[in-house]
Amino acid sequence: MPPAGRHLEQLRRLPVTELEKVSARKAAALRQLGIESVLDLLTHYPRKYVDRTNQSDIADLAEGEEAVVTAEVSRSSSRRFRTGRLLAEILVHDGTGTLVCTFFNQPWQARRFSSGQIVTVFGKVAVYRGKRQMANPVVDLVGDQTGRIVPIYRQSGKAAVSSLEIGRYVEEALDRAKEFADPLPGPVRAELRLLPRTAAFHDVHLPETLEDKDAARRRLAFDELLRLQMLLAARRRATDASSNGIAHRSGGVLLQQYLDRLPFELTGAQRQAIARITEDLASPHPMNRLLQGDVGAGKTVVALSALLVGIEGGYQGAFMVPTEVLAEQHHLSAMRLLEGLVVPDPGRLGGERPLTVELLTNRTSGADRGRILDGLAQGSVDLVIGTHALISEGVDFAALGVVVVDEQHRFGVEQRAALSEKASLDPDLLVMTATPIPRTAAMTVYGDLDHTTLDELPAGRTTIETRWLEGERREQTAWKRVLEAVSAGQQAYVVCPLVGGGAVAADEEPEDPDAVAGEDDEEDGGAAGDKGALLDPAELHGERRPPRSAVEEHERLSSGPLGGSRVGLLHGQMAPKEKEPVMQAFRDHELDVLVSTTVIEVGVDVPNATVMVIEDADRFGIAQLHQLRGRVGRSDLPSSCFLLTGDVVTDTAAARLEAMVRTQNGFELAEEDLALRREGTVLGARQKGRTDLKLANLRDHRDLVLESRRVATEIMDDPAYEEHESLLQEEVQALVSPDEAEYLFRS
Ligand code: ADP
Ligand code: MG
After folding, report:
1. Probe ligand 1: pick from 270, 462, 605, 631, max atoms within 8 Å of CB?
2. How far is 329 from 324, CA to CA, in rounded Å?
3. Out of 95, 121, 216, 482, which residue is the most buried by the measure of CB atoms under 10 Å away?
């Protein structure tokens, strides 16, 4: 039976002003929240729900508990901290005790209430210096609402439109919409125990019980994931159907010569991956493959193998990486391993010429750039390694055959496509991720690709002893170990979050999930409430120390704790002419210690380095820490990694550091990372942009991710579901943006 009822597309074309309750003035306020259509309104889901039936006395409130109290306002005020942060406080009492409600950077909260008013307060209880507090609670005037479960909506900054008003508009919209067309076939819905869409839209806004809203959110989250998977499946099919690919023919001679020169044996996983990729390349369909593997698993060897297969058949290869340093590094090692190899050249006497490899970044000088571009356009350059400079205007290929993209979550689908479009035939594409990503995430973000995983590290890798050292006294342990390594003829890295003079280099900004979360919710009145912004240690328990800079640490360490060693400095604000000699000196062991920023994060490969010291490690995300640690332990020498922090770190930072100490497995760390990211953090960036992924997240909906992928294929394949499919396609068109999946990762 074809689905009956309202289409989301119809609601998207209906402006909110069509609702009787929405005035022109309120419509303007709604627009500030990104709500223009009735669909925007209905998908402006409550950010929390308050269950008013469970009221507590203030005297009974226990630390850590979420609670609702009804109390009288005794005063409200706001003040400014030295750091410039604004604190608004509302003091309430209920006859059994008093409670302080605090709001950071929301001065208007203090103005909303005056003494004598009766309010209900909902939030998480903290106790500080013997006083009960709630950070960013939801505070409402009593009498505003009567329902049992009250939805709390994100409201506009100066409360030009309140949560309560939004609730009224939603109610009207639901009343008038009545029935929603359900694109999910009944049997599928029954099998997955998902609510019908009409019930889901009702219950997400007006649930009778907290369980009802969970079921509703689950159904709507599934819809988001299903739309995304429909898009990915369609994209997969389009490439599968392409007959414009290249059936690479190669005798495998070049590849074999390259492999013979490697100073090591391939791992079994590498061998299998190369075999699989060679098969893909030989087929006339364009390859679209994701190559995953933990740091150090040896993805680069596999990537170069793929490129060589294409090159032997007379095509060109392009290898795009996220940073300059990495491009330079790959270029150097490719030159070394490919030196002396020849490629067929029928135009020449003897029928062959040397294989040519070039480096192209935004820093390639004008003359070199001209020469390289000519070579690419004429086909005399076989392999080009570079940054996103490769997709810039003016780069043309004579016969691009194989593209490798090393992503590190920095390139999107669009950029991948941009490189492929530089070829007349559809080139074969291999995507690598610098950091392992959890399976569910891979299915979503890379759902349009086939997957291969290198699940084996090269033999002889030792574990990296990892320690977290808190406070300045303990860090001496790290310096002592560095000196020992140096006197044993080994080398060490020291990584700092800043360059110097307080500057953070543009592409080196440490991901500081904590710092990002508390700051940006002026509008929201408390997406960060869940994480207890009140407990911000910098405000209350002494400062988190200011981050250290590479320039200053270089000076301090070379004249102090590491005096006597040859200490070099490397950071992203240095010109390539200054950077390259430092890298070279470190590779040649003319330097013992390299103090740097995260420019060394990926790809730097100096097997003699055995100690990694990461300063202010609490300011880095797990993925980054794992990458940095991966710079050591690249030989059979025992290696160590020290995570230095001040005495004060946030809880989530502590959890990240503990995870790093506990395991060295990148896939495990990636799962941990996902689990640690609070919803507010994962979704924070999305709320700003327009995206369809409002409820679904990889942490809570793992099962739905997998199911949605299966259901998408089922609906596309089953002719009985044609009507459902076309309704879904309409929704995809209306709601999903092409880079949607990437949002799941932004933080
Ligand atoms: P990834 O990119 O997967 O993090 P790389 O390709 O950079 O890893 O390889 C890491 C290091 O291991 C490099 O020094 C590389 O030369 C080396 N390597 C790669 N494969 C093997 C192998 N099979 N045996 C020993 N060393 C290897
Ligand atoms: Mg690598």
Report:
1. 605
2. 8
3. 482
Question: Are both 253-283+298-433 and 464-663 of the same fold?
Answer: yes
* d(CA 740, ligand 2 centre) in Å: 27
Domain ranges of the chain: 8-44+172-212, 54-146, 253-283+298-433, 464-663
Asked whether the beta carbons of 706 and 438 are under 8 A apart, the reply is no
Residues with CB under 5 A from ligand 2 (ion): 300
Looking at domain 54-146, its CATH superfamily turns out to be: Nucleic acid-binding proteins (2.40.50.140)
Tell me which fold the domain 464-663 belongs to. Answer: Rossmann fold (3.40.50)
Compute the residue count for the chain: 747
Summarised one tens digit per residue, pLDDT across range 393-427 is 889 999 999 999 987 655 556 666 777 777 778 89
CATH architecture of 253-283+298-433: 3-Layer(aba) Sandwich (3.40)
CA distance 288 to 280: 9
* Alpha-carbon gap, residue 566 to 559, rounded angstroms: 11
Which residues are within 8 A (CB) of 482 and not within 5 positions of it... i.e. 6 or more apart? 492, 494, 562, 565, 593, 611, 613
Q: Among 259, 264, 587, say which to mutate for ligand 1: greatest number of ligand atoms within 8 Å of CB.
A: 264
The residue nearest atom 24 of ligand 1, judged by CA position, is 458
CA distance 733 to 8: 11
Cα(502)–Cα(509) distance, rounded to whole angstroms? Answer: 12
DSSP 528: G
Contact between 233 and 705 (Cβ < 8 Å): no
User: How far is residue 241 CA from its own chain's centroid?
Assistant: 31
pLDDT in tens, 199-232: 999 999 999 999 999 999 999 999 999 998 898 8
